[in-house]
Amino acid sequence: MATTIGENVGAGLTLARSNSSGRQQHLEPTTFVNPTGKSTRGPWQKFVSWIWDPDYYEKSDAERKLVFKLDCALLSLLCFGWLMKYIDQTNLANAYVSGLKEDLHIEGNQYTWMQTIYNVVICVMQIPSNMIVLKVRPSWWLSMCEIGWAIFTFAQAGAQNYQQMYAFRFFVALFEAAFQPVAYFILGSWYTKSELAKRASIFYVSGPIGQAFSGFLQAAIYKNMDGLQGLAGWRWLYLICGIMTIPCGIAIFFFLPDFPDNCNSWFITEEEKELAKARCAKNGTIAMSDALNFRTFKRVIVTWHFWLLIPTYVLYAYGIQNYNYFGIYLKAAGYSVSMRNILPSCANLVGIIPQLVWGWCSDRFRSRYAWCLIPCLWGLCPTVILAVYPDSNTLKVFAFMVTGTYFVTHIWWSWVNEICHGSMEERAFIIASINCAFYACNAWLPTIIFLQTEAPTFPKGYPTVLACNCGGMIGFTIIWFMHKRQLRREEAAMVGTVEEAGVPMEQIDEKPADDKDATRVAVLKA
């Protein structure tokens, strides 16, 4: 369908489109309009709009029903899949401190190389996975990947030496690579700017919940199942996690609603599919153009998005890597096997509430930049403690325990979806490229700065993390200025398009953009 009026060049709303017969098709507005002009919000609606979606009371009943379905199906499935991925990702660290090292005779940096192989494969598969879902339904692709990594989770339970673990980690990474970039891509395709950061927060914290669950599960297995049927406790951990993963892959196949443009889920009606497309138009999210070729990639890599978003995320993400080495510190400090699993799990749980609060604040106060920067400023405290590495055991445990409180990854991905809203292909490529760059660095950097022979002090690792944290905050600030400039240009283009269409100015209503620091954009009245 071609747009005929109100062309969506920024954060505007497309109200009229031409269908295949050339006749204009007017999309039903998604905003509830009260003809009396008086507020109809009761106490419950006020509470929900404050605690959940700021525009909850403005939505029609049909739109609220659609969002509820998305929360129950899309968000829930992605959360469970992400939880299972994090459980498997954490299993190696938990197994390593629970007997795997001794059973497989792991020496030197062989454990680090297991992580490196995983990161290299994840890196290589990021962009292909996101490009695949532009042509293949995400429900098909993600379900196949989920079941694939479940199979190799079972295989890890039977590993007899470090060479086999290398091979199994390779295949686990091959299938797991798709999940994170595709999940954030899908979330950004369905949810609006006032909804996205909270949902991304819920999705993201399911990962730390998985990490925590893995630790508690390993502790319980080590206590109750170690030696059962002649199998070590860490082998039972892999078997149980594989059994848990397969049902998730099956559920994704049947219930994940793909994208608004190609959704064929039985529980979403035709009217709701059209409503979802109208929401995308209102949100400024452009649908697929089917143009996926070399010129598409060439267009993307000459934008500031490519050259600023990627290094900023790499710096930020490496500025939160301290948490990966908590278990190793506890082992070196002489903690029991149970405590080596339980304390890192508690650290993951400590970060959940702050991460949800940061996402809520980002949506509520309509700013991505501020709520990326503020938590990272607080994060300087534990990062400095570990970089200095004092003699106090209490200070070091405190620094590890609060590391998760300054994670803003979920807000970052919401911001990226909004910055790259003008092209679905660009969004897919940028999201995957950002992840790819991080895993590319993570494939070799730990072998230099986090050498196992330097554990647990890591004299090069912790200071590097501190420097990356500072660099990430500088990157956030530069992106904020560039995004403001982008929004001003989109506003100017929007005004020019409206004037060319001959729309009387009295039919134009100015509303603030999602970011409170952004310029105002023209939106056609419903």
From TrEMBL:
GO terms for cellular component: membrane. GO terms for molecular function: transmembrane transporter activity. Keywords: Membrane, Transmembrane, Transmembrane helix, Transport. The keyword Protein biosynthesis does not apply. It is a multi-pass membrane protein. Residues 18-41 are annotated as: Disordered. Residues 18-39 have a biased composition (Polar residues). Its main location: membrane. It is found in: Membrane. The chain crosses the membrane at residues 66-84, 116-133, 140-159, 165-190, 202-222, 234-256, 301-321, 341-361, 368-389, 395-416, 428-450, 462-482. Coiled coil: none annotated. It comes from the Eukaryota. Pfam families: MFS_1 (PF07690). Belongs to the major facilitator superfamily. Allantoate permease family. PANTHER family: PERMEASE-RELATED, TRANSPORTER LIZ1_SEO1, PUTATIVE (AFU_ORTHOLOGUE AFUA_3G00980)-RELATED. This is Major facilitator superfamily (MFS) profile domain-containing protein.
